[in-house]
Write a sequence for this structure.
């Protein structure tokens, strides 16, 4: 069981470090979107995907360790959580596990908040860009139109033209 505790603490500390990297990337993502830097944004998205894959691997390993704990304690593995492990058995690693759990929960909340802020900023930036494009398109159409907005015919613009009569 001591080996399982050490493995679990190690996995949780790796997750804490990974989530810190993810939080840093989310803050950089905000800066990239606010600065309209597509290159930085794409780079950040690639890094986020890599961190997500690493996180999934860590979560699979954590699940395996938790299943081994549940089996060793004779408890059902399906709903066996870190808090249940801490309360199920007295161990010197319990304070470390509780601290990791607390930090992870706080980081998950921070990630959720930053994701929501970034999502709102991206949506706002996208809407602003769409409105700008619509304005430019409307101005372009008005400048090419031979009608005023009240329906009257616009005077023809006098432009010089050459006519080739040799053909």
């Amino acid at each position: 069981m001591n080996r399982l505790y050490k493995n679990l603490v190690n996995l949780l500390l790796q997750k804490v470090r990974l989530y810190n990297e993810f939080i840093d990337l989310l803050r950089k993502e905000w800066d990239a979107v606010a600065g309209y830097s597509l290159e930085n944004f794409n780079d950040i998205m690639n890094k986020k995907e890599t961190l997500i894959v690493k996180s999934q691997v860590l979560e699979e390993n954590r699940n395996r360790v938790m299943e081994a704990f549940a089996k060793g304690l004779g408890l059902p593995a399906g709903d066996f959580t870190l808090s249940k492990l801490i309360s199920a058995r007295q161990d010197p690693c319990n304070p470390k596990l509780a601290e990791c759990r607390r930090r992870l929960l706080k980081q998950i909340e921070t990630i959720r908040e930053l994701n929501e802020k970034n999502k709102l900023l991206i949506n706002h930036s996208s809407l602003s860009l769409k409105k700008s494009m619509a304005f430019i398109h409307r101005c372009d159409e008005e400048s090419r139109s031979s009608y005023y907005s009240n329906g009257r015919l616009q005077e023809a613009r006098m432009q010089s033209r050459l006519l080739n009569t040799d053909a």
